[in-house]
């Protein structure tokens, strides 16, 4: 019996070591990719290495949160397909639960400690009268972090007193690790879910415009040669005006750059192959439309399930039986569809986030993004990615139960919040798509009625059209 106990302890030890090594390798890959992304956009001068490494860590955690649910679904299906395969024995429930807990822990650490530290350290110079140096900056940073922690503690305490004025709930706030931090992260998760609810419908409609700018549209009733000729005339006129000035005009230079960009786009459209214009572009648009339509229908079905069956509520799972039963009605095909939709929603939420006017200033620019902007981007992406598994389960995009601390959020058990979340997502997404696809018809109706000069519509103009009309003629010279 003692030898059996020793053997079991050795197996458990080796299993834990193997899980730590796998988690480390996954995080190392995410960290390297995140570092490459940040160095592509950051300014090359005036960068604090401490803030840079902390931002890289946070972006890696965000990537882990994005891949968390798809990795769990894939692992479950693999274990169902190959239950006794020796080479995939490392893929077990203990590893999946460990990844969920680590992502939750690192998300809290990055959101409440690392990112505030990176920002305060970047802005710190040391207290007045103290000797300037790294120690003075670190001291000021820790003091600011302490004051920020007191401020957040007070805000959450007051909010808890207003919402749930109960002695038991107030006493539970004294338990910092078991209740207060999970309660605080639950509030942040709810805020992230609301931010996703705001950004995702906008991003779903914006994706059509973004892909239209990346791909070459079909040429229908357009004379590209005439448009290029008009652009050349405008470019030569602006160049002559600039040559006649002793000092260059900033506005004229900017206008000349815009004209050259339009000329490059038109030349790219002219050189594009027929396959790219007539096959790839319609196919991509149909895929985007199908993904959005399927997402709305799945949310609509989830609303019906919520009304008739309480098991549709998002809930946490403590069962470690990963790989015992399939969580998809149609097996692997439905699991793949769920994963594709989750990535599509995440990309759409990021596009929608940067499309909102309030967050447009955070849009990163290649080799010209300040460290403060990078910190803001990392925090925003971390909030969005951490709320992605919760949103996917709440909307019924996936039936995989939330594991670890993700399933302990208080608001997940509130039927009215979950139902309202689903209804708002379905309604707002439908309205955004209707507005997107009817904007052209609305513009033509306003022009036919002579109301276009009143600017009743605020739909943006096509950046590729510039100052050219549909028939290729210049509107203004």
Automatic annotation (TrEMBL):
Report keywords, A-Z: Membrane, Transmembrane, Transmembrane helix
- Residue ranges annotated as transmembrane are 20-38, 50-74, 94-122, 142-163, 183-204, 279-308, 335-359, 371-391, 411-434
What does UniProt give as the signal peptide span? none
Gene Ontology cellular component list: plasma membrane
**GO biological process: what's one of them?**
signal transduction
- Tell me the InterPro entries matching this sequence: LIMR (IPR008075), LMBR1-like_membr_prot (IPR006876)
Top-rank taxon of the source lineage equals Eukaryota
| Molecular function terms, GO-annotated | transmembrane signaling receptor activity
- In its keyword annotation, does this UniProt entry include Transmembrane helix? yes
Q: Does the keyword Membrane apply?
A: yes
Show the Pfam families listed in the entry: LMBR1 (PF04791)
PANTHER family attached to this UniProt entry: LIMB REGION 1 PROTEIN HOMOLOG, LIPOCALIN-1 INTERACTING MEMBRANE RECEPTOR LIMR
What family classification does the UniProt entry report for this protein? Belongs to the LIMR family.
Q: What is this protein called?
A: Limb development membrane protein 1
Species of provenance? Takifugu rubripes (Japanese pufferfish)
The major lineage groups are: Eukaryota, Metazoa, Chordata, Craniata, Vertebrata
């Amino acid at each position: 019996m003692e030898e059996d106990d020793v053997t079991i302890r050795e197996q458990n030890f080796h299993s834990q070591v193997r899980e730590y090594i796998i988690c480390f390798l996954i995080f190392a890959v995410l960290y390297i990719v995140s570092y490459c992304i940040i160095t592509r956009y950051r300014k090359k001068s005036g960068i604090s290495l401490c803030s840079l490494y902390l931002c890289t860590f946070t972006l890696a955690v965000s990537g882990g949160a994005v891949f968390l649910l798809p990795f769990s679904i894939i692992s479950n299906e693999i274990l169902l397909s190959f239950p006794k395969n020796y080479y995939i024995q490392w893929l077990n429930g203990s590893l999946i639960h460990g990844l969920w807990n680590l992502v939750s822990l690192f998300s809290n650490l990055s959101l409440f400690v690392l990112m505030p530290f990176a920002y305060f350290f970047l802005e710190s110079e040391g207290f007045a009268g103290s000797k300037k140096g790294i120690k003075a900056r670190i001291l000021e940073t820790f003091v600011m972090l302490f004051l920020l922690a007191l401020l957040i503690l007070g805000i959450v305490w007051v909010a808890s007193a207003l919402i749930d004025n109960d002695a038991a709930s107030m006493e539970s706030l004294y338990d910092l690790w078991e209740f207060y931090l999970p309660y605080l992260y639950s509030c942040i998760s709810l805020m992230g879910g609301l931010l996703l609810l705001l950004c995702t419908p906008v991003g779903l409609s914006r994706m059509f415009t973004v892909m239209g700018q990346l791909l070459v549209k079909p040429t229908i009733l357009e004379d590209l040669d005439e448009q290029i000729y008009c652009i050349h005339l405008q470019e030569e006129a602006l160049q002559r005006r600039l040559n006649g000035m002793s000092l260059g005009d900033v506005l004229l230079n900017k206008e000349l750059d815009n004209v050259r960009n339009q000329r490059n786009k038109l030349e790219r459209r002219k050189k594009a192959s027929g396959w790219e214009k007539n096959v790839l572009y319609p196919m991509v648009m149909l895929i985007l439309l199908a993904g959005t339509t399927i997402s709305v229908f799945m949310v609509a079905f989830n609303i019906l399930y919520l009304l008739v069956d309480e098991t549709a509520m998002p809930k946490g799972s403590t069962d470690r039986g990963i790989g015992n039963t399939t969580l998809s009605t149609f097996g692997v095909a439905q699991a793949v569809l769920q994963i594709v939709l989750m990535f599509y929603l995440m990309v759409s939420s990021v596009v929608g986030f940067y499309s909102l006017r309030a967050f447009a200033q955070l849009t990163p620019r290649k080799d010209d993004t300040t460290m403060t902007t990078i910190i803001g981007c990392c925090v925003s992406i971390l909030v969005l990615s951490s709320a992605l598994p919760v949103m996917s389960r709440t909307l019924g995009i996936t039936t995989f139960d939330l594991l670890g601390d993700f399933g302990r959020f208080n608001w997940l058990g509130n039927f009215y919040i979950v139902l309202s979340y689903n209804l708002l997502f379905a309604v707002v997404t439908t309205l955004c798509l209707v507005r997107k696809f009817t904007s052209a018809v609305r513009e033509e109706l306003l022009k036919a009625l002579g109301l276009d000069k009143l600017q009743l519509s605020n739909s943006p103009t096509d950046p590729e059209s510039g100052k050219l009309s549909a028939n290729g003629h210049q509107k203004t010279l």
